[in-house]
From TrEMBL:
Superkingdom field: Bacteria
InterPro entries assigned: Aromatic_deC (IPR010977), PyrdxlP-dep_de-COase (IPR002129), PyrdxlP-dep_Trfase (IPR015424), PyrdxlP-dep_Trfase_major (IPR015421), PyrdxlP-dep_Trfase_small (IPR015422), Pyridoxal-P_BS (IPR021115)
Cofactor: pyridoxal 5'-phosphate
Record PROSITE patterns: DDC_GAD_HDC_YDC
Lineage, uppermost ranks: Bacteria, Bacillati, Actinomycetota, Actinomycetes, Kitasatosporales
PANTHER family: GROUP II PYRIDOXAL-5-PHOSPHATE DECARBOXYLASE, MIP05841P
Name recorded for this polypeptide: Aspartate aminotransferase family protein
GO BP: carboxylic acid metabolic process
Cited Pfam families: Pyridoxal_deC
Entry-linked Gene3D superfamilies: 3.90.1150.170, Aspartate Aminotransferase, domain 1 (3.90.1150.10), Type I PLP-dependent aspartate aminotransferase-like (Major domain) (3.40.640.10)
Species per Swiss-Prot/TrEMBL record: Streptomyces capoamus
Length: 462
């Protein structure tokens, strides 16, 4: 064994303690560190020939790179839809690396059963029935890709084509209908060979809504009678967290045979709050569902789940035919359910957080984030330099400059907020108007944080 490796192994407790001390300092100071990194990154250095050992690597990281990492795990990072990592989830993530389980197969480990237990808890949390099976994936993009891949196989079943064997050529054009699809949907369509141009956008409800007009959707389905179609319903749009009427869309399935995929990347968490749970009524009728966990479940990157009612078709798409991996019989190993063979135990941080805080703890996070979004929205409404672009429906505030909101001026506002070190928000375009989004999904965010974000916006827009 290399002497540096041997030395690190003999001093592993001390090395882990040093890493723990650095992590504790970072987490303890997270609320006050600049939310976005300032200044250029350090220049690159050559790959070392002689290793510096674990202590040396830790010291160099702390000196050269750690200062420029963003405060994305902190309470005022409101860009994209970014959760933090609960204390229990961090502990689970550390143990994921320490146990380093090979999840290609059962392999004499109980790890897959822990994942199945966690998936079952999540299914219950989001109001899905036992007809839905699930698996962990990297994020919403992969979850949407898996759901559409199963839908593609379903379309082949309707046409008498085994797509997983014969390919998409025998399938012919397969259209995907949606009102306000996330960009990951068209990315998935490109990956799956369906083609980005096969997306058909269905008219939305009037009044600045991002929810699909169900009557227009029915008309589009009627025009395509006789051909299989995938419908992507949206449970929580990116700009305004608008929800399609899932119950009404599910009712259309009785007259028009289509595959219903619901992108509920963060909207599914509305199910935890009695005030908002009706937004996801009908989710259980979906054929496939996407939920992203490193958003509102507040587990470390990367983690998401996908659910489906047609595990048989999922296995047809993703099974790995190799003698040493075993056949996908009975309860198939997860390698037969997603694009990955090699995968880390993403379920463990989620399992830790669910056990540590339960349904009630995660409900409190959802409800507090929604309350803070309303608080910021009300504050923006009072600032003379800003205006809301849409009502605050759940956990995202969509706003812009009150006067002359050009892309350049809005981008300058976002930079000024980031340069203040107080907050980070991301750009969008809503109703043709450039704007900004502030998304609340971090377990740490309090009213005091929201007030600081509002003060930064006031200073940058004044």
């Amino acid at each position: 064994m290399h002497r540096t490796l041997a030395g690190d192994l003999s001093r592993l407790p001390e090395l882990l303690q040093a890493a723990r001390d650095l992590a504790v300092r970072e987490v303890a100071g997270l609320a006050e560190r600049p939310v976005a990194a300032a200044g250029p990154p350090p220049g690159r250095v050559p790959l070392p020939d002689a290793g510096a050992g674990g202590d040396g690597a830790l010291a160099r990281f702390a000196e050269r790179w750690a200062p420029g990492f963003s405060g994305s795990a902190g309470p005022r990072y409101l860009g994209f839809v970014t959760g933090g990592a609960t204390p229990a989830a961090v502990a689970g993530d550390w143990l994921t690396a320490a146990f380093d389980q090979n999840l290609s197969g059962a392999g004499g480990s109980w790890a897959q059963e822990l994942e199945r237990e966690t998936v079952a808890w999540l299914r219950e949390l989001f109001g899905l029935g036992e007809a839905h099976s699930g698996a962990f994936v990297t994020g919403a993009t992969m979850s949407n890709t898996v759901g559409l891949a199963i839908g593609r196989e379903w379309a082949g079943e309707r046409l008498g084509v085994d797509v997983s064997r014969a390919g998409t050529a025998g399938l012919g054009p397969l259209e995907v209908l949606s009102g306000s699809p996330h960009s990951s949907i068209t990315k998935a369509m490109a990956v799956l060979g369906l083609g980005r141009d096969r997306l058909r956008r269905v008219p939305l409800l009037p009044g600045g809504r991002e929810a699909v007009d169900v009557a227009a959707l029915e008309a589009a389905l009627a025009e395509r009678a006789g051909r299989p179609v995938i419908v992507v319903a949206n449970a929580g749009t990116v700009n305004t967290v608008d929800f399609d009427d899932l119950r009404a869309i599910a009712a259309l399935k009785e007259r028009y045979g289509f595959w219903l995929h619901v992108d509920a990347a963060f909207g599914a968490f509305a199910a935890l709050s009695p005030e908002h749970a009706t937004l996801v009524d009908g989710l259980d009728a979906a054929d496939s569902v996407c939920v992203d966990l490193h958003k509102w479940l507040n587990v470390p990157y990367d983690a998401a789940v996908q659910f489906t009612r047609r595990r048989d078709l999922q296995v047809a798409v993703f099974h790995n035919a190799s003698p040493y991996l075993g056949e996908p019989e009975g309860e198939p190993d997860f390698l037969h359910l997603t694009p990955e063979n090699s995968r880390r135990l993403r379920a463990l941080p989620a399992w830790f957080s669910l056990v540590a805080y339960g349904r009630a703890g995660h409900r409190e996070i959802v409800e507090r984030c929604a309350a803070q979004a309303r608080r910021l929205g009300a504050g923006v409404d009072t600032l003379p330099g800003l205006r809301l672009l849409a009502p605050v429906r759940l956990n995202v505030v969509c706003f812009t400059l009150a006067a002359d909101p050009t892309p350049q001026r809005v981008a300058a506002l976002a930079r000024a907020v980031a340069d203040s070190g107080e907050a980070f928000v991301t750009p969008t375009v809503y109703g043709g108007v450039p704007g900004l989004r502030a998304a609340f999904s971090n377990w740490r965010t309090t009213g005091a944080d929201t007030d600081r974000v509002l003060a930064a916006l006031a200073a940058a827009s004044g």
